[in-house]
Amino acid sequence: MREFQEKIIDDDILEKMTLENVFKIFNDNVFPMLNQEEQEYCRELQSFCIDLDPKIDKSKDVYELFPELGKHGYMQRINLWKDFKPYGMVKEILLATHISMLDPQLELARLASGILCGNPTFHYYKHGGTGDTIQKVQDELMSGEAIGCIGITEPGQGSDAVNMKTICKKTDEGDIIYNGEKVFTTNGPKADYFCTYGVYDPEHPRQTMVQAMIDKDFGVETKRLWIASVPRVHIAHTLINDIKIPKEYILADNGDGYKRLFEGLVPERLGIMGSGIGICWAGLIYGIIYTNLRRQFGQEVIKFEGVGFGLAELLSKCTAATSLALQAATIYDNKVLFADEVNKEAEKWVAGVSSQGKYYVSKLTHEVCYEVQQHAGGVSVTDNTPIDELMDTSKIEEVIGGARNIQLFIIQNQLRRYKKIL
Ligand SMILES: Cc1cc2nc3c(=O)[nH]c(=O)nc-3n(C[C@H](O)[C@H](O)[C@H](O)COP(=O)(O)OP(=O)(O)OC[C@H]3O[C@@H](n4cnc5c(N)ncnc54)[C@H](O)[C@@H]3O)c2cc1C
User: Fold this and answer.
1) Which one of 172, 300, 330, 332 is separated from 216 by 20 to 30 angstroms, measured CA to CA?
2) Which domain range does residue 223 map to?
3) Alpha carbon distance 76, 180 (integer Å)
4) How far apart are CA 66 and CA 80, in angstroms?
5) Residue 117 lies in a domain
6) Domain count of the chain?
């Protein structure tokens, strides 16, 4: 049983607010959308989460849980690592959904390490990278023994990230010296590896962008930013002063870094949809359980239309969001990730829909958690239910991976192009 600062929730209700019950209601709503293999994969994830749940100490950082994820190949599931199957974007969405339902802060840190830092190591070999240096980094990240992060955002370059100011300089030996500053580096203060972008020429960032893996031992300095809504995740101001990166750590040089940045953004945004779907379902289901059991004026509060109709509306939105995430991920798997040949039309569609989905789902996490707290009442803003932690984490979902307006900016660019086909 969880420990609380002070318990006021009724024992009869508390004993029903379990992850097992959350999964029962989730399965009832989501399993009909899944095939046999996906259902089986979810059952494995659920038994893993139910085993891990009592071992999670919410007063501690999330990082000690990484090796537990790594043992089961759960640091990411987009790419095949060792023989952990099944894999692909649908499996990644389902993984993210379940880890969010288990522990939304763990999910935030996992996504940053496994996907944002891990994915570039897979892209490196996919594009002809050689040697075993990056393989070693990948194995450490995927096993959860090492912690990774990504450095794109800078103090002066947030949404306008492409025009970054971190400067690269090539040495005669082919190594690169990095100088710059990054902010909001999720996992940064704890990280062993920093997948970091810089440019040779800030006047021509697209043509000269570099993506490189920086080992913390090369001399990166981090200072923790205090973000109260996710206290168990460490987020950094990262200082990169004259850091020499040996050539075997360069993932994509001289303009190829720009292509990899965009190659990474689509799976990243689809992945964030998975994290968001988990927050939505967990917030809603804990609300459904609680309001089915809490009685006022002689009846369960869900029977008051003000509560029941509100939850019904949220359920409709959660189902729609889940259906969108699964459909987008299925198309990404079939037409991009596992496709024999490049399908430009599908790639373009998925890039657009990843922004639409990221925009819609991350905003929905906030709406669901906030509304559930209003429907469930006072206890849901205390630590007696997991809803308030979900609410706090939802705040981060909308800004990480590109703020709301940047998703809308990308979406409206597509709308403007329609003039050409009129
Ligand atoms: C908790 C957290 C974790 C993060 N993790 C990482 C990470 O691991 N690695 C990393 O590199 N970055 C990370 N980020 C950075 C995140 O991606 C940026 O915060 C985001 O890109 C927005 O940049 P900004 O915060 O500087 O806002 P700004 O770009 O300064 O934007 C301020 C406001 O202006 C709006 N705006 C900006 N440009 C436009 C425009 N053209 N049209 C309309 N509106 C516009 C924005 O939507 C926003 O509302 C993280 C951020 C947070 C808060």
Assistant:
1) 172
2) 148-258
3) 29
4) 18
5) no
6) 1
pLDDT tens digits for range 344-376: 999 999 999 999 999 999 999 999 999 999 999
Q: Is residue 214 part of a domain?
A: yes
- The yes-or-no verdict on residue 2 having pLDDT over 90 is no
Taking the C-alpha atoms of residue 201 and residue 165, their distance in angstroms, rounded to an integer, is 9
Check pocket membership of 112 for ligand 1, CB cut-off 6 A: yes
Strand partners, 167: 179, 199
**Runs of H (alpha helix) within 333-402:** 344-376, 387-397
What's the whole-model pTM score?
A: 0.97
Nearest atom within ligand 1 for CA of residue 188: 8
The response to whether residue 411 sits with its C-beta less than 6 Å from ligand 1 reads no
Contact by Cβ (8 Å): 290, 376: yes
pLDDT above 60: residue 342: yes
Predicted pLDDT at 1 = 55
Tokens linked to 233: 């995740």
Ligand 1 pocket test: pick from 184, 225, 260, 409 the residue with the most ligand atoms within 8 Å of its Cβ.
184
Per-residue pLDDT tens over the stretch 290-310? 999 999 999 999 999 999 999
Of ligand 1's listed atoms, the one at least distance from the Cα of 157 is: 26
Neighbouring C-beta atoms of residue 188, cutoff 10 Å: 27
Is 150 near ligand 1, meaning CB less than 6 Å away?
A: yes
Residue 354 lies in a domain: no
Position 235 in a domain? yes
For residue 410, how far is its CA from the centre of ligand 1 (angstroms)?
14
Tens digit of each residue's pLDDT (9 = 90 or more) over 49-67: 999 999 999 999 999 999 9
**CB of 396 closer than 6 A to ligand 1?**
yes
CATH of the domain at 210: 2.40.110.10
Nearest CA to ligand 1 atom 43: 405
